[in-house]
Specification:
This is DNA-binding transcriptional LysR family regulator. The chain is an alpha/beta fold. It is built from eleven helices and twelve strands. It folds into three domains: about 80 residues, Winged helix-like DNA-binding domain superfamily/Winged helix DNA-binding domain (Arc Repressor Mutant, subunit A, Orthogonal Bundle); about 90 residues, D-Maltodextrin-Binding Protein, domain 2 (3-Layer(aba) Sandwich); about 100 residues, 3-Layer(aba) Sandwich (D-Maltodextrin-Binding Protein, domain 2). The strands form three sheets. The protein has a five-stranded mixed sheet, with helices on both faces. A hairpin with a 2-residue loop joins strand 1 and strand 2.
Length: about 300
Amino acid sequence: MSNLARLDLNLLAPLAALLDERHVSRAAERVHLTQPAMSRTLKRLREVFDDELLVRTSSGYRLTPAAERLQRRLRPLLPELADLFAAEEFVPATAVEIFRLSGTDYAVDTIGVPLSTRLRRDSPGSRLHMRKWHESVFDELERGELDLALYGYAPPPGLRTERLFEERFVCVVDPGHPLARRPVLELDDYLRGTHVVVDIRDGRQGVVDTDLRANDLARTAGLIVPHHRSALIAVVGSDLIATLPRRMLRDADGVALLAAPDVLGTMTYSMSWHPSLDSDPAHQWLRALLRAEVDDT
């Protein structure tokens, strides 16, 4: 152990050259050192291993028994060390990775499903594991149990966060609702109505209820559901009003869509990850793939 503590890894290549060439000048040329520098290196190696390593004879240098043993061990070791210190690469076509993401059903529908299609096309051996959104998502990022979180409100400190897009809200009602034919749902009508609320956190719907509270306003909840898709279903045949992100409504049938009141601003949708994943090639690739998917939609 004491020899290991004294060993400079930079000595390994000269050591291998000296043991192979059994000649100071040829070994120096092989590792691009001057002959005096190689002589100093040989002196250091002799001190580290407490052995002469190379002994001069009438016909040249000869390896000591300890040097022969070192040579046998170094031959398989040096390629392993080269791999250990080589820059890590991520090759999507041959990679086998499981990427763990969390988001609401909105994130799954609008980002997760199309992202999975891209991922399986470019990295057939890899897959996404989309986990349901819950209160401890950011704690899981901190503990390394989750790779990426997708969400639409202010991020906590200590994580890397990148804005993906701005999203507007649309009011959704049944086609037979008294307000269904209006292009815009005015604020007074919005506040008089009965709403289906998507429980993002603490029974509230993220940005929607935050914007209302910021203006000392509140809406009446007739139904609270855990998923955006459930809210969309709930308005059919009822007097409920759902306030949902526009992206998930592109193919919505059997409902009426109205522009939301101006008091409801946009939602900044972001992705967050732990700083330990900043330089990981696989996760850099995943984030780039996600950006490309968002840009195309």
